[in-house]
Design brief:
The complex is a heterodimer.
Chain A (H helix, E strand, L loop, with lengths): L2 H9 L10 H74 L2 H4 L4 H12 L3 E7 L5 E5 L13 H9 L1 E3 L11 E9 L6 E9 H9 L8 E6 L30 E7 L2 E9 L5 E8 L5 H90 L6 H30 L5 E4 L1 H18 L3 E6 L6 E4 H19 L4 E8 L4 E8 L6 H6 L17 H11 L3 E7 L3 E9 L12
Parallel strand pairs in A: 11-13
Antiparallel strand pairs in A: 1-2, 1-5, 3-4, 4-5, 6-9, 7-8, 8-9, 10-12, 13-14, 14-16, 15-16
Helix pairs in contact in A: 2-7, 7-8, 7-12, 9-10, 10-12
Chain B lengths: L4 E5 L3 H13 L3 E5 L2 H9 L6 E4 L8 H11 L4 E6 L4 H9 L4 E4 L4 H18 L1
Parallel strand pairs in B: 1-2, 1-3, 3-4, 4-5
Helix pairs in contact in B: 2-3
Classes of the chains: A alpha+beta, B alpha/beta.
């Protein structure tokens, strides 16, 4: 497992799995996404959720308190108005005796005065102890009407004051009645003063209450019939079914739903009347403003989420890529070091073998040479020419061996040479010297095109040999039989020269090209390639201050380009394999 | 011209014998020894060669040590290093210690004779 992932695993053991494959990094990336989302979204969701909950609670409380305050205000106002009305009726009944009121024209005169002050008064009647209306003032002809069997009459006799619900009655107009009963002097009988008041008066009392435009305020009786108009429930005497359970007492405030809308309503009994005053407002939490507020909060949440997503994705990708890159570089460095050591060992082995072979070769060479010398001075004898010819063959073979051992020694001794001035053309020729024979078995041709007057490159010969050996070896593998490999060297710019190695092989896909320098990446059959050659080559070229790139197209072949600095700024001698 | 006296120092006796014989056939006056100590003893007897052909790797003394001794005691004698070992550092070290040249085995006899002649001319011109 890569070193970086190992370190992370100490802290997040469950996050890091085997990651030297793409799958490992993919899983790590997914886990990082999960962790980062959790870290960034949990506080965001908690903050917004809690804030929203607390905000809602606070608003509800505030709204309830305001409504309770409003309903109490309305209750006081309406009770005061009704108290004034009752006081006036009581005053008339107390001030005038029954006998005086039943005098003809007296009630009409009194009613006319009262109506001046209270235009809402509809009519006025005086009812005698037998329940017959003795005197009447008003728009109808109700003198002599018998009220003795009516429910309200019975009530007023027992309670002394009676206020009715709003009803239509004979008048076919919504109105209500205030009646007071008074004892006839010296008798156990009662007479009744009754005043009808139109519902407009009641409506005016309700309208004087200060309310917000969004509020609906109205009166309702215990049976649930509207006593004044309601914006929500309709006109007077329409049914409003919510309040039948209320038996009076403290103001009640709660939320309820009507026709798909949520309302906050509050109601309380008006003292000495059959009515409740009701205020209904559209719950803020269910209104357009709250919806708009919630929409804004959601948009902010959405915005934050998108932003967090972008940041998390970028961050995780960046971390994973850097991790992967760092691991690859480390792997490459380790492999390169191992490979270079191996290369150096092979070099030393080759040098040892070459040395051991050179000495016996020198003996063969000198002995064969001596035989030739001696035979040349000797007299003719049988098979002399044939022997001389054979010895020439031996000397020729010695020469071939000499070329091989000298080349091996030349190659090996450059393993430990540091920076020096190198003729790239010579170096490429030298590398080809190792490969041409093998390539010739597959009839692979090499074409060379080296620009004239190329400057010497200040670099490391051994490392450069490895670089070009790897690339040309790959080209030989790629082109197969009868292939063509073109080597060229020319100026890239004033500071660099460029060496190109083009082959006529089958080319590579863009996916392969992307990964061509990755360690352990190989397109060769299992066991035929380590996937390290080009990775090491990449590392070596970078170390030498150069650049390496590759272009390839399926069916068109592959071209490697190595650019090397002409004058490397690094100090001579501080660089070894 | 006098025969050029060549001392061949190499533990590969088969090689030194054959080479000596061939040089002799070509008018040189070679002698052979098979180790560094024998080479220094031969010099101490007063029969000084013009040119020494010296191997690098030998059992008792290395070619470098022999070279240093020769150049210290007989600076006019030219030494050509002749070895199967190919390290560049060996060649450079030899030249720094005063060797005339550094040649790798197996060596073409014509090339070797040319080097011996050049070394001899240098010795003559120096004296």
């Amino acid at each position: 497992m890569s070193n970086s992932l190992k370190k992370i695993r100490q802290f997040f053991p469950e996050f890091v799995t085997e990651a030297h494959t793409d799958g490992g990094y993919g899983r790590f990336r997914l886990m990082m996404y999960g962790a980062m989302f959790l870290i960034s979204f949990t506080p965001l969701i908690l903050a917004i959720g809690l804030n929203s909950h607390e905000h809602k609670k606070l608003l509800e409380l505030q709204e309830r308190e305001q409504l309770v305050s409003s309903i109490e205000g309305a209750q006081n106002t309406i009770e005061a108005s009704m108290h004034e009305l009752q006081a006036m009726v009581r005053f008339v009944a107390g001030e005038y005796s029954y006998d005086e009121l039943i005098k003809p024209g007296r009630v009409s005169e009194l009613f006319a005065h009262l109506k001046d002050q209270y235009p809402g008064f509809v009519d006025m009647g005086v009812i005698g102890p037998d329940g017959i209306q003795e005197e009447y003032a008003g728009p109808f002809r109700l003198e002599g009407y018998d009220y003795s069997e009516q429910d309200w009459y019975v009530k007023v006799l027992t309670r002394q004051l009676y206020i009715s619900d709003v009803f239509m009655g004979y008048r076919k107009l919504p109105h209500f009645v205030i009646a007071v009963s008074n004892k006839l002097p010296g008798r156990e009988e009662y007479w009744v003063l009754r005043l009808s008041i139109d519902s407009e008066t009641l409506q005016n009392y309700v309208s004087t209450v200060n309310t917000r435009s969004s509020q609906d305020i109205f009166l309702v009786n215990s049976q649930g019939f509207l006593q004044t108009k309601s914006n929500i429930f309709g006109d007077i005497l329409d049914i409003c079914p919510f309040f039948t359970h209320y038996k009076g007492g403290e103001a009640v405030t709660h939320y309820s739903e009507f026709k798909g809308k949520k309302y906050l309503r509050s109601y309380v009994q008006i003292k000495n009347s059959p009515w409740m005053v009701v205020i209904i407002i559209e719950g803020y939490m269910y209104g357009a403003k709250w919806s708009s507020h919630r929409f804004r909060v959601r948009m902010i949440f959405f915005g934050c989420t998108v932003l967090a997503l972008i940041v998390v994705i970028q961050l995780v990708n960046s971390i994973t890529n850097r991790l992967q890159e760092a691991d690859q570089n480390r792997n490459r460095a380790v492999i390169e070091s191992q490979y270079t050591n191996k290369f150096a060992s092979i070099g030393r082995l080759a040098a040892g073998v070459a040395h051991e072979i050179n000495n016996p070769l020198a003996i063969i060479d000198q002995k064969a040479g001596l035989v030739t010398d001696l035979m040349e001075t000797a007299e003719e004898f049988e098979h002399k020419e044939k022997l001389l010819h054979s010895i020439d063959g031996i000397l020729g073979a010695v020469q071939r061996c000499k070329v091989i051992t000298h080349r091996l020694l030349g190659f090996a001794r450059r393993m430990d040479v540091a920076f020096e001035h190198i003729d790239i053309s010579d170096l490429l020729q030298e590398v080809l010297g190792f490969l041409e024979k093998e390539a010739s078995y597959s009839r692979i041709r090499f074409e060379k095109s080296f620009a004239e007057k190329l400057p010497m490159v200040f670099s490391d010969r051994g490392q450069l040999q490895q670089v070009f050996l790897n690339i040309i070896n790959n080209a030989i593998d790629a082109v197969g039989k009868d292939g063509l490999i073109v080597l060229s060297a020319e100026f890239y710019d004033r500071e660099m020269i460029e060496i190109k190695i083009k082959d006529s092989g089958p080319g590579m896909s863009s996916e392969t090209v992307k990964r061509i320098f990755d360690p352990f990446f190989t397109t060769k059959e299992a066991g035929k390639g380590t996937g390290l050659g080009l990775s090491i080559t990449y590392g070596l070229v970078k170390k030498l201050g150069g650049e390496i790139s590759v272009k390839s197209k399926i069916g068109k072949g592959t071209a490697f380009s190595v650019r090397l600095p002409i004058n490397d700024t690094r100090k001579e001698g501080n660089f070894s394999g | 011209m006098d025969e050029i006296k060549v001392l061949i120092v190499d533990d590969e006796v088969e090689f030194t014998e054959a080479l000596a014989e061939r040089l002799e056939l070509r008018g040189f006056s070679p002698e052979t020894v098979d180790c560094g100590l024998a080479a220094l003893e031969a010099l101490d007897t007063g029969h000084l060669p013009d040119v020494v052909l010296l191997d690098l790797k030998m059992p008792d003394m290395s070619g470098f040590e022999v070279l240093v001794e020769v150049k210290r005691n007989y600076p006019s004698i030219e030494v050509i290093m002749l070895t199967g070992h190919g390290a560049a550092s060996g060649g450079m070290d030899s030249m720094e210690r005063g060797a005339f040249d550094f040649i790798m085995k197996p060596v073409d006899l014509g090339e070797l004779m040319e080097k011996i002649n050049q070394a001899y001319e240098k010795r003559i011109s120096a004296s």
